[in-house]
């Protein structure tokens, strides 16, 4: 069973529809207590969503999902983040400037910062080529051709401190991290649920990986 983290963000329905199209057993989470590793009904979870870094993080903290997600990841259980679900794994974001000199933090799972694209032409909206890292293999992209197009909508990009975590890149004004993997944690900046057959293939690749 796959759990889709329901923390009040938009765009959750399209992820569930994509999982249903693949014939995968999935449902929305009903609360952070369902993510406690020793008692969870889920084998894997997906953390999708759109929105503002600070607002999303505040929602996670208020609901209790922030701590639950940290415990899930610390237990090395399969996790897939989508869009803001990638960005919130990082330490901080330029979208959430410090308050009275105190940085506003993300989940602090992946060391690094989420930065705004340079220039005025943001957000990036639409299809973009995605290149897969050649320095390491990634089961996420198994069976997908190099330079596959995925659908993106974002004004900020993740900048990991550890380059080896990056398994895919794209170019929009600059080259940037489009996907990461670290242990059982995987996350993508694009929206596989909106990326046609190739996006479904990526979701299927992730879902059939062993726990």
How much strand content do the residues show? 25-35%
Radius of gyration over C-alpha positions, nearest whole angstrom: 16 Å
The biggest sheet amounts to:
9 strands, mixed
Biggest sheet strand order reads: 2-1-3-4-12-11-10-7-8
Structural class: alpha/beta
**Share of helix, binned:** 10-25%
H/E element string?
EHEEHHEHEEEEEEEEH
Taking the alpha carbons of the first and last residues, their distance comes to 11 Å
Our count of helices gives 5
Regions with little confidence, pLDDT below 50 for 5+ residues? none
Describe this structure in words.
With 211 residues, the chain is of the alpha/beta class. The protein has one domain: Class I glutamine amidotransferase (GATase) domain (Rossmann fold), CATH 3.40.50.880. Helix content is 23%, strand content 31%. It is built from 5 helices and 12 strands. The protein has helices spanning 12-21, 53-63, 65-74, 84-87, 196-208, and strands at residues 2-4, 26-28, 44-47, 79-82, 90-93, 110-116, 124-132, 148-154, 156-160, 166-172, 174-182, 185-188. A 9-stranded mixed beta sheet has the order 2-1-3-4-12-11-10-7-8. Strands 5-6-9 form a 3-stranded mixed beta sheet, with no helix packed on it. It is globular and about 45 Å long. The N and C termini lie close together (11 Å). The mean pLDDT is 92.
Characterize this entry briefly:
The protein has 211 residues and is α/β, with parallel strands linked by helices. The chain is built from five helices and twelve strands. It has helices spanning 12-21, 53-63, 65-74, 84-87, 196-208; strands at 2-4, 26-28, 44-47, 79-82, 90-93, 110-116, 124-132, 148-154, 156-160, 166-172, 174-182, 185-188.
């Amino acid at each position: 069973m796959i759990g889709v983290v329901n923390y009040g963000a938009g765009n959750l329905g399209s992820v569930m529809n994509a999982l249903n199209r693949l014939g995968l057993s999935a449902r929305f989470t009903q609360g952070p207590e369902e993510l406690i590793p020793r008692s969870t009904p889920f084998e894997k979870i997906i953390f999708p969503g759109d929105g503002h870094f600070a607002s999303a993080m505040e929602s996670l903290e208020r609901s209790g999902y922030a701590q639950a997600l940290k415990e899930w990841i610390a237990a090395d259980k399969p996790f897939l983040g989508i869009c803001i679900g990638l960005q919130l794994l990082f330490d901080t974001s330029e979208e959430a400037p410090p308050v009275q000199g105190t940085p506003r933090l993300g989940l602090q799972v992946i060391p690094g910062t989420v930065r705004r694209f340079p220039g005025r032409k943001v957000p990036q909206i639409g299809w973009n080529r995605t290149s897969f890292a050649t320095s390491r293999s990634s089961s996420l992209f198994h069976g997908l051709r190099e330079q596959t197009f995925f659908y993106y909508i974002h004004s900020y990009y993740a900048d990991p401190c550890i380059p080896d975590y990056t398994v895919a890149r794209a170019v929009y004004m600059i080259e940037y991290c489009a996907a990461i993997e670290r242990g059982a944690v995987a996350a993508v900046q694009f929206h596989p649920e909106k990326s046609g057959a190739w996006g479904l293939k990526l979701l299927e690749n992730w879902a059939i990986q062993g726990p």
